Amino acid sequence: MRRFLFVSCLTFFAISPASADITHAIKSSISLTVDGAGSISTRVPSSFAVSGSNVTLGTPPKLGTLTSGTALGYTPGVYSVTTAGDSFSYSESYIEGDDVPTVLSTTVTAGVVPALPVFGSNTTTSGGVAGTLAGTLATDGAMSITAGGAGTTAIGQVIQELTIK
Length: 165
What we know:
The protein has one helix and twelve strands. It has one helix spanning 2-15; strands spanning 22-34, 38-42, 47-53, 55-59, 62-63, 74-75, 78-81, 89-95, 121-125, 134-137, 143-146, 152-164.
């Protein structure tokens, strides 16, 4: 009887199927990017500075009025030596700032900035041109990427996951 029970138990365990959860996933993606054009401009201000010793101010220096399409303008001061025969120093500097533009925006045509405002500081990035940029994913998992023009990016990836629990 013991032998029968032993053989029955062995048969029972040998016949029972193994149990496991198996998951298989395939994920595919393509990312296509075309850079945008941009321009950052900073207007430089007008400024002047005067310094000196043993000088007397007659007529003060002055800045003109800033209007669109014209320069600011600067009228230098009139000075004289305070004590004749003594040493003196005098320094005057002037920086003409950027004009007020009639159009304050920059246009982008076909991904390109054709004209920029003329300012003291400009940073410009040209835009990408899509050209032949393309990407396809077939149902069988085949991936095809076609390069574009300047300023474009194409990234393709396939991720396969196999999970056994």
